[in-house]
């Protein structure tokens, strides 16, 4: 008789697990049931800002694999709008509630994949019944926001709270839809995912696009009228708002896991081993935005909610559940973003991370261009490197530029992954042709500058 | 009393050496004389096709540092239009001829930097006095070709002989100037710098731009009338031509070096050690397109004439001459090119190279896109990987795509440089955001495919 795997959460991590396991074990060997509380499976949450801005027309474009594909191609019993409400690890059972029909089902499992993702941080002031307040965590959130933006009369004034990736992307999306947008950030500047000297470039670009950026400002409350949000009340005064978008980050969605007795790490994510097994629990797996993982540079556990990790982790879990052997090697904090025509990339540790991890280091900023200076379309590119002192080992890198900049971070990410020193990096054989790089690639220019900073002559 | 360094050849390698040496030793310690037979110093020969096409307006834009800068900023005695005709390593003297004045000078040296670059391959049929036949090796060559293209009546039919980088770039440049262009290639297809399956994509794009590509065709002669070239005679019949551009590759310019007794390696380039010293000759250095270097993957000496290597080698030599310590670590064959709106990148070994070097390997081709499929501007990208069997070590990679493709090769180049296996590569933490990559980056998709090819389950 077939074993049964139950997948809790039908997005990237859960469905990648299911697909890989199915690839290695057929239905007679492994039955797979996936519960998903939303209306969609396997979608790109990262694409939501582009759907809001109108760059992407249709939510279906963001769905990598729909339920029918999972059912027909992978023989996975996908149950949408079913929210798992209880996991009993001793009895090997889950209870799921049908959010539309209202009924409850109880299913047993041999193998459990917990992939519930993350939930948005929601301070007390955001817990309101007022209409016009939105997270952008799920495709259902995105659909609600889009409907609101299309309502009559159309909202004209937007306030985005929080200046992380999703906050700046949403601010840009709303400006592009013609709204007047204020971004409220409690810290010194938005985009604290890069160091302040690099974030300044992004802030300038956002202001250039017309975003009103208020930094060092704390939100205290929302006011409403006739059931609709009306103002964001801050310690710097009220800001009128027809729509409020919350971009305050997310935390691992572990409520069910904790109740079931799964171990939670210091970041709040579920503790898993390199094969994505939940620590010390047989046949219980977890992957994606609900788990914590190893940062290969700091050596510390981190919570990095990102679709690319969720997919990789799901694949690893699925190979293992399927009888193969695979491990997830950890992350180095690589991320790229497009902000108001600026391209931003980062990998490894920021200065504050390097300090916190106890490294001594130098950091350098090198100005260069994406193409040979004489080639049409050459634009500035700024590369920052952080290198351990005195070893010269690369600890982190950041890039801000206009075009052909963001993905250059991959070159630095692979160097970092391989623990290269900046001295070794000056020798790298990188592609050179005038349309694509100056004869000294920006990465090499920065590496040379870091070598000089480590050992001034 | 100051020592004296003589630099033979005032382009990238020679002048990078001079600048670095000057950075570390001032004039009282080291006098520097640089002889350059052309009209320019430190220019981008790689930029010539864009000057020809008109994308770049002015030759001066291609000059990174002009003689005045070298003289004033670096205190280097640059002597243009001076061709070194003899090097006497025993007496430590060079003889140089003033190409304009006609006189000869004899100068002694303590340190010699030989940086004469490369000379174009010129078969017997190309040794003609007919006007309208051009190489594109130097800025002076480019100036002559531009003048010819601007002459009255303007040439209308161009034949480019040779389908390497410079050949395809020149074919495109001439099409963009409005000429009717035929590219004659002796081999099966142009762009043999990548494997045939990848080169096919380039050939199609060139044909799409209107280049008439004749492959498997041997040129036998040029015919002329009134002193001007008229036809390219081939074993497939004559091809009318108002202008002929030679793109048949280059060989190290070693005539003087050989006469002086410098050691020449199997590739025809000067043999140098890792510090860029000419093997076994004290205080004699060489760098750039005239030397051979180590290929880090095959372990064999190779001749790779490319400005980026010339600059790095010159910098290494200059640091050493200046009293520091630096080595050139070799190359892995990374190159990028823009061909008719296609972007092409390669690194490491092609299949034929891997065979010649005695590797057993698998090769895979993965189709993907530069951006998330739903993001506007997503275009196909094809990644080929060659991996050693059974170890999985990456041996080579090639990319062809429409936009944001070429420089992705750097990600693979750094992986190759660090001897990563394709299995390790599947774990790489690369930048993901919808404007820049699908959630599985094309590099990761290809690595996964290579893993499957190595170990099919």
Automatic annotation (TrEMBL), chains A, B:
Residues 336-438 form the Pyridine nucleotide-disulphide oxidoreductase dimerisation domain. Pfam families: Pyr_redox_2 (PF07992), Pyr_redox_dim (PF02852). InterPro entries: FAD-bd_OxRdtase, FAD/NAD-bd_sf, FAD/NAD-binding_dom, FAD/NAD-linked_Rdtase_dimer_sf, Pyr_nucl-diS_OxRdtase_dimer. GO terms for molecular function: oxidoreductase activity. The keyword Transferase does not apply. Keywords: FAD, Flavoprotein, Oxidoreductase, Redox-active center. Residues 4-298 form the FAD/NAD(P)-binding domain. The keyword Transmembrane helix does not apply. Its cofactor is FAD. PANTHER family: NAD(P)H SULFUR OXIDOREDUCTASE (COA-DEPENDENT), PYRIDINE NUCLEOTIDE-DISULFIDE OXIDOREDUCTASE DOMAIN-CONTAINING. Belongs to the class-III pyridine nucleotide-disulfide oxidoreductase family. This is Flavoprotein oxidoreductase. It comes from Micromonospora craniellae.
């Amino acid at each position: 008789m077939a074993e049964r795997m139950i997948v809790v959460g039908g997005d990237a991590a859960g469905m990648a697990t299911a697909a890989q396991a199915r690839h290695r074990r057929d239905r007679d060997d492994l039955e797979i049931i996936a519960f998903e509380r939303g209306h969609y499976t396997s979608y790109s949450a990262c694409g939501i800002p582009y759907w809001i801005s109108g760059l992407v027309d249709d939510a279906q474009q963001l769905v990598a694999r729909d339920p029918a594909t999972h059912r027909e191609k992978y023989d996975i019993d996908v149950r949408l709008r079913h929210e798992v409400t209880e996991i009993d690890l001793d009895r090997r059972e889950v209870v799921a509630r049908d959010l539309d029909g209202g009924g409850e089902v109880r299913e047993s499992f041999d193998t459990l994949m917990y992939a519930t993702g993350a939930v948005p941080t929601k301070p007390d002031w955001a817990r309101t019944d007022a209409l016009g307040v939105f997270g952008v965590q799920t495709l259902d959130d995105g659909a609600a926001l889009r409907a609101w933006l299309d309502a009559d009369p159309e909202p004209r004034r937007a306030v985005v709270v929080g200046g992380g990736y999703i906050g700046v992307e949403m601010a840009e999306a709303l400006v592009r839809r013609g709204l007047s947008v204020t971004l409220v950030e409690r810290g010194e500047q938005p985009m604290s995912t890069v160091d302040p000297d690099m974030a300044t470039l992004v802030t300038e670009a956002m202001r250039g696009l017309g975003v009103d950026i208020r930094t060092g400002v704390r939100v205290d409350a929302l006011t409403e009228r006739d059931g609709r949000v009306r103002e964001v009340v801050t310690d710097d005064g009220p800001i009128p708002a027809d729509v409020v978008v919350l971009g305050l980050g997310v935390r691992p969605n572990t409520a069910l896991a904790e109740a079931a007795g799964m171990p939670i790490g210091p970041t709040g994510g579920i503790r898993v081993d390199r094969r994505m097994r939940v620590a010390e629990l047989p046949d219980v797996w977890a992957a994606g935005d609900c788990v914590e993982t190893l940062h290969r540079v700091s050596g510390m556990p981190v919570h990095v909610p990102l679709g690319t990790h969720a997919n990789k982790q799901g694949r690893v879990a699925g190979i293992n559940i399927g009888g193969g052997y695979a491990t997830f090697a950890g992350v180095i904090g690589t991320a790229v973003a497009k902000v108001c025509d600026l391209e931003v990339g980062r990998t490894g540790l920021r200065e504050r991370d390097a300090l916190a991890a106890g490294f001594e280091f130098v950091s350098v900023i090198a100005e260069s261009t994406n193409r040979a200076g004489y080639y049409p379309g050459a634009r500035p590119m700024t590369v920052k490197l952080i290198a351990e002192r005195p070893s010269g080992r690369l600890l982190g890198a950041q890039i801000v530029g206009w075009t052909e900049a963001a993905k250059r971070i991959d070159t630095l990410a692979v160097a970092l992954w391989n623990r290269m020193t900046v001295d070794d990096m000056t020798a790298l054989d990188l592609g050179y042709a005038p349309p694509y790089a100056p004869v000294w690639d920006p990465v090499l220019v920065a590496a040379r500058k870091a070598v000089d900073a480590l050992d001034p002559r």
